């Protein structure tokens, strides 16, 4: 019985070890301003992305492209000093049209996540 118990304990520990990387949460986008798919009346001053956890500044970015694929926001995104789960990018005045926001972040676990969404300016 002791041998069976030992094998079961070792198997349980191995399963827990193998499953632990999958249990770790990754940074995921909770909300954005402007919101994904939104049509805004005027150009926003900045794009703000809020994640479910703190993001690492060195590995986090936002780019905004117009309908031709041209980058329209030359500045770099910065993590909010008062809330490190928020990433902000200043935006110059945008003309009417549709824009694509591309983002990439790394959370506390070091895994990089990325995504994109569109918004329009009237």
TrEMBL record:
GO cellular component: periplasmic space; plasma membrane
Gene3D superfamilies: 2.60.40.1220
Entry-linked Pfam families: CopC
Domain of life: Bacteria
One GO MF term attached to the UniProt entry: copper ion binding
Alphabetical list of InterPro entries matching this protein: CopC-like (IPR047685), CopC/D (IPR032694), CopC_dom (IPR007348), Cu-Rt/internalin_Ig-like (IPR014755), Ig_E-set (IPR014756)
Principal subcellular localization: periplasm
Signal peptide bounds: 1-27
Annotated localization: Periplasm
Domain CopC intervals: 26-121
NCBIfam families for the chain: copper_CopC
The protein's name: Copper homeostasis periplasmic binding protein CopC
Taxonomic source organism: Rugamonas apoptosis
Designated gene of the protein: copC
